Each structure stands twice: as structure tokens, then as C-alpha cells.
Amino acid sequence: MPFVLDINPVAFSLAGIPIRWYGLILVVAIAAAYAVADREAARIRLSRGLVSDGVLWVGIAALVGGRALYVIQNGVPGLAEHPAHVLMIWMGGLSFYGGLIGGLAALLVFAQRRRVPLLHVLDVAAPAAAIGQAIGHIGCLIGGDSYGIPTDLPWAVVYRNPAAMAPLGVPLHPTQAYEAIALAALFVLLWALRRHLSSLPGAVAAIYLAGLATARFVLFFLRDEPPVLLGLKTAQWIGLGIFAAAAILLIVTLRESHRLGTHPSKLEVAR
């Protein structure tokens, strides 16, 4: 028997403003990601306050990138008449890969401005991103965003609330739950490996990108989106590019380690 979800995506209203479950869960996701990144930054002795300084950069860039790619892929009704709708996330959505690309770009700029080794910054951000994204997908599951194709599997999910984004009354693959589980497993893997890979700055980030791209490539065969080229969907093509970037990052990491000829397990950066 499929699981029935009849939850209003709006948790409550505050001063007439609807507060959605997605937004509340996003706050929890950001807090968890921040806690993980702050702990890892302290472990490798990056300057104090680095994570708190960078989180705003990354957060804004991820939202802008996620919204921009969503609009490019899906459009927003009435955008020509009301350009401000591009900022109204609650009227459309966010692209996962758009947020990832925006966040990575912000990390690059931030590391350069703060004169912190980029590979170390990426390694700190990788497990934080994985746990944050895993939690965030719970919000997608509640609201019916990013839903899967119909299925007769016993763990299918059926949406009943009229405000849900998914089609109502149809048993669907809970792809949001699949992705949350995959990202949580990726976080556990990264967290377990991070100490062993301290001598290879950039390796943790490379594993994160490769694991993320692989999981989403497979799961998008179950997503209700049309293919764009050679039977693959837009996100799958982007995922192939992300996987290639992960391979390049790993090569750079190995070459840099070989060039230095030493394997420092910790780095201290002046504030």
C-alpha cells in the first residue's frame, strides 16, 4: 500500500505571510551544514570565523544560481509583464545544480579574497553541502516538488493535498526520499574519509562531486521530466559535466600533492 501524504505545504502564516515547510526545513538544513563546516574548519585549523564569514556569500550565490537555472529551464508565468517574479521563489522553485554551481563560484571568489587555499575550502564545504542537501530534500518530499514517475511499488507516495506540486492521487516514486538517503549516505562516507584524506586537499570535494553526480544521474531516470538529448535529461547532462569536473579536481589534487612532495595533514591560515 502506498504512503499517503496530505500535508499542506504551508506550515502556518505569520503576519499574513505564508511560512512553508520547505522554508522551515531549509533553515534546519543550513544550520546543520554550518555546524558541520565550522567543526571541520576548526579541525584543519583554518582561521576562526572563516565559515561564518563565508556562509552568507555561499547562501546568496546558491539561491541566485538555483533560481536563475530554474527560470532558464522552466520559465516563470507572466515574467515578461512582471520581471520581479524572478525573485519570488515561492512561485516557482530552485534548481539543485544551479544552487551548486552558484555556491561553488562563491567559494572560489571567497577563497581568493580571503587568501585561503581553495582546495581546503572545498573540502570543508563538501560534507556540509551533503548533509544540508539531504535535509533539504525532506522539504521537497512534503511539498511534492521534484516528484518521480508513477510506480506500483509498495513504498510509492500518493499526494492528496491540493496545494502539493505533484499530481494528486497517483502513486509516485518518492525520488525526493531516494535523494535524501543517497546524500545522507554520501555525507557519512565523506565524514568517515576526511581524516584519512587530509594529506590530499581536494580529494573530499572530488568524491562529493562524483558521488552527487552519480546519484542524481541514476535517480533522474525516475524523475518526471522529458529528455532533451540522446534520451538524457538536462540534469543528467549537467551531472556528466559535474562528474568530469570531479575527475579533473582529483587529478589536480594528486598532481599538487606530488609536486609538493610532502603530505601535510593540517593547515593553519592566518586571519
What is the strand and helix layout of this fold?
Elements: E1 3-5, E2 10-14, E3 17-20, H1 21-43, H2 50-74, H3 96-114, H4 118-143, E4 157-159, H5 175-193, H6 203-219, H7 234-260
Parallel strand pairs: 1-4
Antiparallel strand pairs: 2-3
Helix pairs in contact: 1-2, 1-4, 2-3, 4-5, 4-6, 5-6, 6-7
Structural account:
The structure is a single chain. By secondary structure, the chain is mainly alpha-helical. The protein is 58% helix and 6% strand. The strands form two sheets. It has a two-stranded parallel sheet. Helix 1 crosses helix 2, helix 2 (50-74) runs antiparallel to helix 3 and helix 4 (118-143) packs antiparallel against helix 5. The longest helix is centred in the last third of the chain and has 27 residues, at 234-260. The radius of gyration is 20 Å and the shape is globular.
Give the tags.
single chain, 271 residues, mainly alpha, two-stranded parallel sheet, two-stranded antiparallel sheet, 7 helices, 4 strands, 58% helix, globular, disordered C terminus
